[in-house]
Amino acid sequence: DLNAKTQVTYEFARGLNLTGGFRFQKYYDYQYVNRDNSGKYVMNIDHDTQMWKAFAGLSYDFIPQKVAFTSNVYVQNQQLSNKQNVPFMEKMGVKAQIEINPVKQLNFKVWGNYLGNRTYGNGLHLKNALLLGSRLEYDFTSNVGIYLKGTNLLNSKYMLWPNYNEMPFQLFGGITFRR
Questions:
Q1: CA-based nearest residue to 72, from 96, 49, 106
Q2: Which conformational region is residue 12 in: left (phi greater than 0), alpha (psi within -120 to 50 degrees), or beta?
Q3: End-to-end distance of the chain based on CA atoms, in angstroms?
Q4: CB-CB contact of 128 with 114 (8 Å)
Q5: Distances (CA, A) of 112 to 66, 133, 174
Q6: Residue 107 has pLDDT above 80, yes or no
Q7: Exposed, middle or buried, 147 (CB in 10 Å: 0-12/13-18/19+)?
Q8: What does the alpha-carbon distance between residue 154 and residue 150 come to, in Å, rounded to a whole number?
C-alpha cells in the first residue's frame, strides 16, 4: 500500500490560519461492501484501488482561548481498478465548528457537517446530508464535569447506509471523569 500526504498551513494574520493539502492512497487489497444484482450485500476485494483527496481549511481565533472557528472543505475521488467509484463514499464534504469558552470551566461547541451524495450498487444514490450538533460542558474541577450534547439538531432524515435511517434529533447528558 502507498500513502502520501502534503499539507501547507499559512498564518495569514494573527490567529487566522489557512490550510490546504492533498492526499493520495493506493491499496493493493482493498476490502469494500457493495450490493450485487440480487440486492444482497457482499464483501469484495479490489487489487488496485486509488483514492485522492484535496482539502482546504480556515481557522480563526476571534478571541484567543475564548472564541474560535474552524472549517474544512474537501473533494475526493475513490476509484476501483474497474474505474467505478468505491461505494458509499461521498465526493465532497464540508465541516465547520465554533467553540466558545467564556470562562475556563465552561465550553460550548456547535458544529455542522455536510456530506455530499454517495453512490452504491448499480447507480443507486444516498442523498446528501447536513448535520448539526452542539455540546455544552461545565467542569467543576479539573477531573469532574457535566455535559449536555445535542445531535441532528435539524431532525434531518438521512441514511449513511441504504434502508437504515439514522437517529433523529437526540439530546443527552452525562458526567465526565478525567484522570
A1: 96
A2: alpha
A3: 38
A4: yes
A5: 20, 6, 22
A6: yes
A7: middle
A8: 10
DSSP 117: -
Summarised one tens digit per residue, pLDDT across range 53-102 is: 999 999 999 999 999 999 999 999 999 999 888 888 899 999 999 999 99
Neighbours of 176 (CB within 10 A): 13
What would the pLDDT profile of 124-133 be if each residue is shown by its tens digit? 888 999 999 9
How crowded is the C-beta side of 87, counted as CA atoms within 13 Å? 20
Q: Residue 165 has which C-alpha cell?
A: 435511517
How distant, in Å, are the alpha carbons of 80, 110, 134, 137 from that of 107?
43, 10, 11, 5
Closest CA to 33 of 90, 115, 88, 92: 88
Residues in the chain: 179
User: Which of 113, 110, 109 lies closest to 94, judged by CA?
Assistant: 113
Q: Give the residue carrying C-alpha cell 483527496.
A: 53
Cell numbers for 42: 457482499
User: pLDDT per residue over 109-121, tens digit each?
Assistant: 999 999 999 887 6
pTM equals: 0.83
Pairing of strands 144-151, 170-177: antiparallel
